[in-house]
């Protein structure tokens, strides 16, 4: 019996998978009914996917596109990540390039192509510092090919209804960047207009709960309005020298508390100070969006509401705290290099502009006369920034928030709002020396000069209240090299005049 057993060992049934090992997604032990077939990598169980008690299909996360590119592309991407994001963020918001666009490049093919084009193009330009426009022909061809692919893929995604509006706006920004780096003002303006138009059409849908929006005749899914939307609005607001504030459009930034809290600011680096001021500026932009711009047909003498007055006081308190903290921090620095010095000047300029804007909100424009010393400092500091040509930091050629933008906007603001004839003319003259951004300084200077001539009526005297221009906006037609300016003026009796002027940009 024993011999027979030894010769014919008992056959046992092969064991199935050990379900006690648990789900490879959550590692919890489930029953064989809920978690059978877990030999598939990353399969889930009923705890992970409770909607169905059976085996769920494998849910793939969006693959990182960088794993599908070659060494050359990885090099261009790394250059974009380490150099371009820092340079393009410049003196303002870090979230756009270092967060939104960089993250999208890992998952959205059209963004990746655009980022590779930017990295390659900027890398080539940096290799020839004495001729910033010079680009290696092979690198230029590579960049243009990537630009074309990015534009084509984005267009197909829009037509196929497989992209939300935020990605479309991001696409406008990265394509705009390529145009600016090549010095193509016309293409940059086209992308700026497209992105701004989408934002203006999108943001009001947040209030009515719309699920879709029409972009260039195509329906695009509408996603919830939130922090990312604020980053995009801030980008387009600052990219335009006009500082398009999207008046009247909803903002997801909550208004300040009715009581002013204790504001404790502390800076250890200039970067900290810049980040703090950026947050204040973004909140001021949101404030302006909430309450809109002043109606030129209504007397500005009417008192502001309690809510608006409280918010203005809040911002003034915050700004006072910021400048006191910054001055104290800067005075204690033992070593101030060229970059730190230049950044400090830009921050001071932006501080003064923000203070004047919030302090004069919805008040008679004559009140700007009280801020003549601040206007003078804006012009003087801007002049120092513009002539800092030997500083490598000043040669930033990114499309967003660089010295060109940081200088052009304040100078245009002085030319628009300051009534001193000599000072506003100095601002316009300095504008002509501003390098290339989305708009060239020379182009913006033409608008500023027209405003000065129209308001002063060639008298060279202080502007009378009824000669002030309101709602000044402009658009440039690069093909014809002509510009159109729209403005309104309120007479003494309150009658509104609508003014339209055409400028020859080629002269």
UniProtKB/TrEMBL annotation:
Region Disordered: start-end pairs: 1-21
Pfam families: Fungal_trans_2
GO molecular function: DNA binding; metal ion binding
Keywords: DNA-binding, Metal-binding, Nucleus, Transcription, Transcription regulation, Zinc
Stated name of the protein: Zn(2)-C6 fungal-type domain-containing protein
Organism expressing this protein natively: Lachnellula arida
